[in-house]
Write a structure and sequence with these properties.
Layout: H1 6-16, H2 19-26, H3 33-40, E1 45-47, E2 62-64, E3 67-69, E4 73-75, H4 81-84, H5 88-99, E5 103-105, H6 113-119, E6 124-128, H7 134-146, E7 151-155, H8 165-170, H9 180-187, H10 190-196, H11 217-225, H12 234-243, E8 247-253, H13 256-264, E9 269-272, H14 286-297, E10 302-306, H15 312-320, E11 325-328, H16 330-361, H17 367-373, E12 378-380
């Protein structure tokens, strides 16, 4: 089946992955209310169509986190992508470099920063959780510096992990061995098995050589998650700011008060995010709080956006509401699971085309024009909406 939108990639990923891994990508916490709202609430905003504007030339480039990029979006940090496609992080990083956009490596990646750098010279960000073992954090920071990571993404909304019921049913992160039930799932996806498991069950990159995390990605992930500091405070952000000389983005901000506090603590950017609806179920969608947060920050630091993006129209809405750039999560991972590097490139290509067409039909020719027009280019929908646009 041809992939002509992100939903097509999602369906292809579902056919190709064992259920345990598709549900990990696709699911949220508890009732998945926030997960659904992230996409549905884009429908609160309608785009203003403008005509008789010469839109033959359109510029989709923009600047965020210190560099100009060909497109107004980046690939955000997603854990375990090396389980969805063989060397999945390397494939995604290569696709991002070719498109001229950044790639972000998760703390729970199968690949290491060094392996990414061997594959790609493109803009590279690295996610960082605050861990109880500060010596391990120091090692990760040093590794990022050594390999030319341009920005650290400090993720601050996971001091306690939300209950992701799909993962609970599948035993994700609680398995320390391949059970008969899991083996059956794998057997039903022979191509995935042949590709991903040909060299044995993968390990989390930062857990390699650290036997305290166990063996095998699932067991290592559980042990690593238990290392995340539950007593995380603003002092930890200050601690990191003192040690990291590069750009620092704080991910997991959902209210203006926390945004202002992050700016005061030295963040170069904040990322409006609810962890893709995987943490506090019942929290607001990211698009619904973006305008308030952007207004509270003004031009002091960049505001980046994450959550629910499946269409180029949604990227345009986020930019018009104050975001300097947008992070893709599930959208690109569906493409990766569907067709590896080509699948990621296809999703990037589709979203770029949708952004370009949307801007043209709005009479907007560049990101700067979009930001200048801002929320005046949108109108509040009279209906409640039931899905993303």
């Amino acid at each position: 089946m041809a992939i002509i939108n992100v939903e097509d990639a999602r369906k292809a990923a579902r056919r190709k992955l064992p259920r345990i891994f598709f549900d990990y990508i696709d699911g949220g916490s508890f009732s998945e209310t926030t997960l659904c709202a992230n996409e549905a609430d884009f429908a609160r905003y309608e785009l203003r169509q403008r005509v008789l504007v010469d839109v033959r030339e359109r510029d989709l480039s923009t600047t965020f986190l210190g560099k100009a990029h060909a497109l107004p979006f980046a690939l955000g940090p997603v854990g375990f992508t090396g389980l969805f496609w063989r060397s999945g992080e390397l494939a995604a990083a290569a696709a991002a470099e070719r498109a001229g956009i950044p790639f972000s490596l998760s703390n729970f990646a199968i690949a290491t920063i060094g392996e990414i750098r061997q594959k790609s010279a493109g803009p590279l960000y690295a996610q960082l959780y605050v861990l109880r073992d500060r010596s391990l954090m120091e090692a990760l920071i040093e590794d990022a510096e050594r390999h030319g990571v341009e920005a650290l993404i400090l993720t601050v909304d996971t001091a306690v992990t939300g209950v992701r019921e799909r993962d609970e049913r599948n035993g994700f992160r609680s398995l320390d061995r391949i059970t008969p039930r899991l083996a059956l799932q794998f057997a039903r996806r022979p191509r995935w098995c042949a590709a991903v498991l040909s060299a044995g069950f993968p390990q989390v990159g930062i857990a390699r050589g650290r036997p305290q995390f166990g063996s095998g990605a699932l067991a290592q992930a559980g042990n690593l998650a238990r290392q995340i500091e539950q007593g995380l405070t603003w002092d930890d952000l200050a601690w990191l700011r003192e040690r990291w000389r590069g750009r620092l983005a704080v991910k997991g901000i959902l209210c203006a008060e926390d945004a202002r506090r992050a700016v005061g603590s030295g963040a170069d950017a904040i990322i409006v995010s609810n962890h893709g609806g995987r943490q506090l179920d019942g929290a607001p969608s990211t698009i619904s709080v973006l305008p308030e947060i952007a207004a509270s920050i003004g031009n002091e630091v960049e505001v980046l956006f994450d959550g629910g993006v499946r269409r180029g129209t949604q990227i345009v809405k986020a930019l018009a509401l104050g975001a300097h750039g947008v992070f893709l999560g599930r959208a690109y991972v569906y493409g990766l699971a569907a067709d590896g590097e080509r699948g990621v490139s296809r999703v990037i290509e589709l979203l770029a085309a949708e952004v370009s067409i949307t801007m043209a039909l709005m009479g907007v020719r560049s990101f700067s024009e979009l930001r200048q027009g801002g929320s005046a280019l949108l109108r509040q929908s009279l209906g409640t909406g039931s899905g993303g646009m």
